[in-house]
Amino acid sequence: MITNIFTYSRAFAFLVCLMIGLSLNAQQDAQYTQFMYNTQSYNPAFVGLSGEKSVVALLRSQWMGVEGAPKTQMISYNAPTKMNNLSMGIGIVNDKIGPTSETYFDLDFSYKIALSGNSFVNFGIKASAHLLDINYNLLTQDTSLGSDPLLAQNIDNRFSPNIGAGVLYYQDDFFIGFSVPSFLETLHFDRSSLSEAREKMHFYVTSGLVVDIDQNLLLRPSLLVKAVPGAPIQMDVSATAMLKEKLSFGLSYRLQAALSLSLIHI
Q1: Rounded CA separation 1/51 (Å)
Q2: Number of folded domains in the chain?
Q3: pLDDT at 249 > cutoff 50
Q4: Which residues touch 265 (CB under 8 Å, ≥6 apart)?
């Protein structure tokens, strides 16, 4: 079933990943090579897709041993509500790199509408709060030409709200979705006239299939495309083979960026 692609409800999944960096690209939103297990963060329409309670926790650490290297922690929960076809989810993401620490709190809702046959469409909305901390004292500044006024004062728990939306069409063996997790392009670092850094809208398209190889083997290819104005389009592809609904082997590739291998036991 398509509703079981991403969530393993009432089960413990042990995930082993190997990531190989190939190149570096600038980004704003936290990203995961194992994107198929974290669909709620970029499309609220995935909330409640499994029809059961679901908890997902992910840790991501790059460049082990390098001070200030990127680190991301994420935990999310979603479940159907007592209201027909309505589901709710919450999520927390902490993203750190260098002197910057960002924390996101998300509240997600999705509503399911049955179409003809065994097809459905989910509409989702996301309300989020963002806290930003920057400790400029961790930076080494060249003051030979004077100090930078943007680095004169640290940023502590700067709050900014946002709102997003998504849509998901799915059948038993296919899905496709589109989402914009954040509509508001708020000033990111400094609200003064000295800074023009803004949050950019991220546009996501995701799709996947479930292919029955035989009674004991399922193949689940999936695709995630991310577009940000002024940045190259990013594409993630993955393929997961599940044996007897107990053991899963996966391969994920981010175009010109990273390769990930996964092993999951349920």
Answers
A1: 11
A2: 1
A3: yes
A4: 13, 14, 246, 247, 248
